[in-house]
Amino acid sequence: MSRTPARTPLSAATSLVAAALVLSACSQPAPEAATDTAAPADGAPAHAFSASINADDFAARVETLASDEFEGRAPGSAGETRTLDYLKTQFEAMGLKPGNGDSWFQDVPMVETTADESTVLKLDVKGEPRELAFGSDMVIGTRTGQPEVKIDASELVFVGYGVNAPEQGWNDYAGVDVKGKTVVMFVNDPGFHAKDASLFEGKRMTYYGRWTYKYEEAARQGAAAAIIIHDTEGASYGWDVVKNSWSGAQFDLRAADDPEPRLPAQGWITGDVARTLMADLGQDLDALYVAANKKGFKAIPLDATLSLDLKSTIAEKESKNVVAMLPGSTRPDEAVVYMAHWDHLGNHSDAGGHEGHGEDAGSGGEDHIYNGAVDNATGVAGIMEIAEAFAAQEPAPERSLLFLAVTLEESGLLGSKYYVAHPAIPLDKTVAVVNLDAMPVIGKARDMTVVGFGSSELEDILKTHADAQGRSLVAEATPQDGFYFRSDHFNFAKAGVPALYAKGGDDLLEGGTEAGHAAQLDYRDNRYHKPADEFSADWKLDGVVQDLEALYGVGRDLAGGDRWPNWYEGNAFRAANDKLKQSRSE
Questions:
Q1: Cα angle vertex 538, ends 537, 539, to 5°?
Q2: Is the pLDDT of residue 70 over 60?
Q3: How confident is the model at residue 29 (pLDDT cuts 50, 70, 90)?
Q4: By the 8 A CB rule, do 202 and 247 touch?
Q5: What SUPFAM superfamilies does this protein map onto (predicted)?
């Protein structure tokens, strides 16, 4: 996840950081108090946690959550049970209270669907049969909760980017009826592959570019199936990430808890498969990229059909959000929320699925546990560090602090979606949300990245703390990757609650932007959504500590005052916030 650099002269940065140390000494909670908690997991050593935000405590928490004993923290697994027990124990030791009434947890009903990976997509291409294999050529799944989905000879239609955006004057479905058909489309926004800054938001991905939106729109159009053509640049990750993320158990909310229409089947095909398929149909994939990036694009019926017999194992289960609260001293009904998702991809053992209980290595010595150390044990450890700081703060915060560790982020931000529909604190009384997801562990930076930079007044508050550290706020360097729509704050944003998603930047004190970009790309290419995302004692955590101190400062200012921040003028979420404001005044 690379970011846009912002250069500060080293001499200036040094003096500013020195000043920041003085300010920090006045604003941080007393560090002397220590809490000796119980051993976090079977066989794990006990650790004495101090009230200050510090690297040792952070590392101990990440190492525990990302250990093999937690089995990759898959929802509905033994790893979830260990995770929930650990978080409750930690929050309770800090002196926090249950945040969901008298419970530490919020039940999130879910449907677990595990597709049979022997499934093939059967194509008829101009009368010639062809089969696509699961994993190597395509991935496919269903959100219907049905153990068998059959599609017979569904006509293929290429619909460009699969976007219907009236405010943009763009409709890839104009003039075509796709009911019962299979739509094939590109990932990302119109304009992206053509590098046309005049379309949509130019380089920055909008929600229309996200794969989740594309399936939602295809369902609204009545399609039988939707297939996205993968390309690494457009998706911002390689095919291995798609394959790993879509293999094994997939989780969803029950249809009763999610009124959006659902497709019978949805999936991806590789770019190579798409290129060959289009060529056999007399189409050129590169030419289709050009055509789909022009206003007035018309969908193209293809001389091919898709048939599918998708068998899945279905189980209705539940997962849990963790909800911990530090009640405010004078206005406990108003709350600032810190959040992070605790879930990851689990154990892809030979037993199958995300919750197999075999060893972490199969017969060939392959690691099957997706430990999710950076993604997102770092974020969960981060909110625990901040919670501990608030618990020791003097004077105590006037507003409540809610610490929310949500489930099912990896399945489409479902735990946070459920919470927003069933909040422990009413949304009109929720002052702001600070989201921690995949904290950089690459050392101190001269900048701090705000994902979705230019969105809300929370950035004004964060800027004061970044300034005190000698750092500047910058936008993400790859807005085309759509990170703003890929983490849990997005559900709060859609509901109008001001949300901040910020973390360390790329302009490292050691090595500058070249080293920062290289480190972020190394993580993306070699560890993101792979078993290699494991804790390392070699991580450089001084930058994380700075990030957490700055984000703690935002909450401290809000919890100690009476400000209700809003989205900036012109932001798409401001109207929803105005409705919350009206509800608050009634």
A1: 95
A2: yes
A3: very low
A4: no
A5: PA domain (SSF52025), Zn-dependent exopeptidases (SSF53187)
- Whether the predicted pLDDT of 11 surpasses 70: no
Q: Is the dihedral of CA 440, 446, 452, 457 positive or negative?
A: positive
Q: How many CB atoms lie within 10 A of CB 183?
A: 30
For 459-490, letters b (16+ CB in 10 Å) and e give bebbbebbbbbbbbbbbbbbbbbbbbbbbbbb
The identity of residue 16, as a single letter, is L
Confidence of residue 9 (pLDDT cuts 50, 70, 90): very low
574 has pLDDT over 90: yes
The position carrying tokens 């394959």 is 243
3-class SS at 565? coil
CA 436, CA 186: separation in Å to the nearest integer? 30
Let me know: does 65 contact 83? Beta carbons within 8 Å: yes
CA distance 254 to 217: 19
Q: How confident is the model at residue 570 (pLDDT cuts 50, 70, 90)?
A: confident
Burial class (CB in 10 A: 0-12, 13-18, 19+), 11: exposed
Percent above pLDDT 90 for the chain: 80
- Give 490-541 pLDDT, tens digit per residue: 999 999 999 999 999 999 999 999 999 999 999 999 999 999 999 999 999 9
Host H or E run for residue 559: helix 542-559
Give Cα 296 distance to the centre of its chain. Answer: 33
Residue 218 and residue 23: Cα distance in Å, rounded?
53
CB atoms within 10 A of CB 332: 16
User: How distant is the alpha carbon of residue 555 from its chain centre?
Assistant: 21
Q: Which domains does the chain have, with CATH numbers?
A: 55-110+317-357+366-584 (3.40.630.10), 113-314 (3.50.30.30)
Mean pLDDT on 171-181:
98
CA separation for the pair 105, 247 (Å, rounded): 28
- The DSSP secondary-structure symbol of 113 reads E
User: What is the mean predicted confidence (pLDDT) over 442-453?
Assistant: 96
* Residue 29, C-beta contacts closer than 8 angstroms, at least 6 positions apart: 51, 52, 389, 390, 392, 393, 394
Backbone angle region of 115, left / alpha / beta, with phi > 0 → left and psi within -120 to 50 → alpha: beta
Beta strands (DSSP E) in 270-398 are 300-326, 331-341, 346-347, 369-370
E strands within 411-518? Answer: 430-435, 447-450, 472-475, 499-504
* Secondary element (H or E) of residue 148: strand 148-158
Residue 99 is classified by DSSP as: S
What is the identity of the amino acid at 194? A
Mean pLDDT of 156-160: 98
Whether the Cβ atoms of residue 44 and residue 69 lie closer than 8 Å to each other: yes
Q: Residue 364's pLDDT is what? A: 52
| Token couple for 143 | 């959100």
Outline where 304-441 has alpha helix (H).
378-392, 414-421
Which one, of 147, 116, 39, 113, lies nearest residue 355 by Cα? Answer: 113
Range 259-285 average pLDDT: 96
